[in-house]
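Page 37, continued from 36.
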């Protein structure tokens, strides 16, 4: 079976939605810039040899509508012979793109795939449909054929998880402070500069530093913030990820193809898994996804050097770590996570993979695990092995 390897990564810095650095940038242009920048890292590759461009996005509306993957391939200057497709697994959309590339390579259906994702909450207003579009079988619990609350707001799922797993507000705020501190330090020491491609903005300035990390965050400030989704709740703007804009991509190749071109792979994809859970507690879905991917790869959590878990909410990070045996001190998000950096939905899977490979290189580690919860009640995970 051919092995799938990642040979290059690229991402924009992450902008804050509505008021950040990328508000005047179209998402398709942003993604095309990243794809073009990614391929410039691998001059040995003839673009005509790309089998597919797979782009994830959570909100297929406005400038992110139509077949975004095909549009991005064209905007990136790829030949007409290079196809493109768009995938949606909400928060894990670009991780799903990487998974599709891995499966195609392992099945012998191709050797070279661009896998990435983009999200501009600013430009799409974060809305893909209206209340009238919702299926009442997901909205009206009084119906005999009611299924579940598929459209439940993510913040309410975090409140449900905090209640079900007895996560305290103090612990959530403490974790949020840790994420901010780690990200601020990583930004200061140049860690993220290793993975960010500077972006020339329409106003002539260069965007090369994530908007999100807050050096002035304190426990006192976090504790003073009101709950956002329930008056008696624990979930605040401070212990949740913000709304964001950004793009990221990785180049996935068969190991044979990479070696034949003289390209040293960065990491090998060992396996992936996707699982389902009740939408109302979607935040803890990574627990089963982690268990499943470790079974597939015949590893234990103690074999994993670095875990990059998407920090949608501190409320879900803490029980996922507790139930999965992940050490927050020695394994988890060593350079901060989405609470500090941000979470542009379609970008995040590829952004986390980019950061995970960076983690492994900088810390001289070998086995990395990426995992995340997904709106609608899903979990996803992927394990990689650093090769260079």
């Amino acid at each position: 079976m051919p092995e799938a390897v990642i040979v290059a990564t690229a991402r924009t810095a992450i902008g804050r939605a509505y008021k950040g650095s990328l508000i005047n940038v179209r998402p398709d242009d942003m993604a095309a810039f990243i794809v073009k920048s990614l391929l410039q890292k691998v001059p040995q590759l003839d673009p005509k040899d790309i089998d597919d461009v797979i782009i994830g996005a959570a909100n297929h509306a406005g400038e992110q509508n139509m077949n975004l993957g095909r549009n991005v391939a064209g905007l990136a200057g790829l030949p007409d012979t290079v196809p493109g497709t768009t995938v949606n697994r909400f928060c894990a959309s670009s991780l799903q793109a990487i998974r599709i590339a891995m499966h195609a390579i392992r099945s012998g259906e191709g050797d070279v795939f661009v896998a990435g994702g983009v999200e501009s909450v600013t430009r799409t207003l974060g809305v893909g449909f209206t209340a009238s579009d919702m299926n009442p079988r997901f909205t009206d619990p009084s119906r005999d054929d009611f299924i579940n609350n598929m459209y439940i707001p993510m913040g309410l799922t975090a409140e449900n998880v905090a209640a079900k797993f007895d996560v305290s507000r103090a612990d959530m705020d403490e974790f949020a402070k840790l994420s901010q501190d780690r990200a601020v330090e990583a930004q200061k020491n140049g860690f993220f500069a290793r993975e960010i491609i500077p972006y020339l903005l329409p106003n002539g300035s260069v965007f090369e530093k994530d908007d999100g990390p807050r050096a002035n965050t304190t426990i006192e400030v976090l504790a003073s913030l009101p709950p956002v989704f329930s008056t008696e709740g624990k979930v605040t703007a401070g212990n949740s990820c913000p709304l964001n804009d950004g793009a990221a991509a990785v180049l996935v190749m068969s190991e044979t193809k990479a070696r034949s071109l003289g390209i040293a792979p960065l990491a090998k994809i060992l396996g992936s898994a996707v699982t389902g859970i009740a939408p109302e507690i979607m935040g803890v879905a990574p627990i089963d996804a982690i268990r499943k991917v470790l079974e597939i790869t015949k590893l234990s959590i103690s074999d994993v050097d670095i875990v990059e878990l998407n920090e949608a909410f501190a409320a879900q990070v803490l029980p996922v770590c507790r139930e999965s045996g992940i050490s927050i001190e020695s394994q988890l998000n060593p350079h901060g996570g989405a609470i500090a950096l941000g979470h542009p939905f379609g970008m995040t899977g590829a952004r986390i993979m980019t950061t995970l490979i960076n983690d492994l290189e900088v810390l001289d580690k070998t086995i990395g695990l990426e995992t995340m919860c997904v709106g609608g009640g899903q979990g996803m995970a992927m394990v990689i092995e650093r090769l260079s």
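The first strand starts at residue 4 and ends at 11. Flag for discussion at group meeting. The radius of gyration is 20 Å.
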